[in-house]
Amino acid sequence: MNEHPFKILYLMTDPFGMGGVQSDLKALGPYFVSRGHEVVVACPSGDQVDVLTRGGVTHIPFSVHFRTPGQFGDQARKLRSLIERVQPTVLAPQSIRASWICHAAAKNLPLARVTTIHNIHSNMNALWAGVILNRASHLVIFESDHEHRRITRLGLSRRKTRVIPSGIDTETFYPDPEARQKMRAALPDLGPDDVVFGCVARLSEEKAHDNLLASYAVVRKSYPKTRLVLVGDGPLRGEIESRARELGIAPFVHFAGQQRNVREWLNLFDVFVLASTRESLPRAAREAMACGLPVIATRVGATREAVRDGENGFLVPPAQVDSFARAMIHLLFDPDLRVRMGRESRRMIDARFSQSTWLADNESVYKVAGSLAGRFSSREIGPRLLDPAVTPCS
């Protein structure tokens, strides 16, 4: 049993389905439970809640939606009631919006507020992020240097921050020759020499599947022994399927839909491709790297922290269809380069994105934060949590 257990209440604004934040909590929550801590996640229900509950995490359906000051006040009162019922030692909002309402609900309560910022897609939200987080949070964890630099430049005190890149579970994601053989045999009409480009991503606007399809259409003209596999689902699926038909590549694009056996699909791929116009530190790309794949991605957000151009893949400007296609063709015609880059991808995961380090660093922060709860006022917790001797910050 842990000598200094904490009780953490995570607050999310999105349903608990597939996504980067949800993937993080599916790893963190059960790990903390196994270490003797209590974990509660408050958010709208989703199709991945059962993964949490099987790991001993408590899920409480809770929705954060407000457009007016009156609605904000009502939501804050409901959250305050939830906090008083759960009695956490750490309040852990997972976004700017969640941080602000946590501040309104708990600013006078003697518990620590530790925000995690995964990504901030809206430039308008980013402009206010520093001001809000300075006031709303005792400590802010960033998952990437990119978002950390961005928000500290916009006013967030560096002293209140720590960068802890999320880790990848290499016991779940790894090169799997048996899975590769099985998946290649199952994909209709796939030849033994066909090269498979693949993407795992939600079918939504920021993932720019339309650009990816256009790039693949260029590739097909040069090298017909190829396939494109898209794993994921989302609001734009109909439009993306229609676009594939318009480009004349529909017979060669496989829409796999949402899948739970992601490792097996990744091992089907020869190259992982991600054409996003907005990203933070893309988890799917790093899971592909753990499976030993080279990655072609757009140079957006924190993607360059995972993909080193020319080392484990290629980075190209967003929305540059021809440039992306050239990178695909480069790897298409050089299988030895694919192998070398894939090995470098796996090495980088082991060296820079260790899940054990990520889990331990988060636990260390929350243990310190939890130890202060109830012993000091909300105003006193902040300075004590930021003491470098207690919680070293990046």
UniProtKB/TrEMBL annotation:
Keywords: Transferase. It comes from Leptospirillum ferriphilum. The keyword Transferase applies. InterPro entries: Glyco_trans_1, Glyco_trans_4-like_N, Glycosyltransferase_grp1. The lineage of its organism: Bacteria, Pseudomonadati, Nitrospirota, Nitrospiria, Nitrospirales. This is Glycosyl transferase family 1. The keyword Chaperone does not apply. Residues 18-171 form the Glycosyltransferase subfamily 4-like N-terminal domain. It comes from the Bacteria. Residues 193-347 form the Glycosyl transferase family domain. GO terms for molecular function: glycosyltransferase activity.
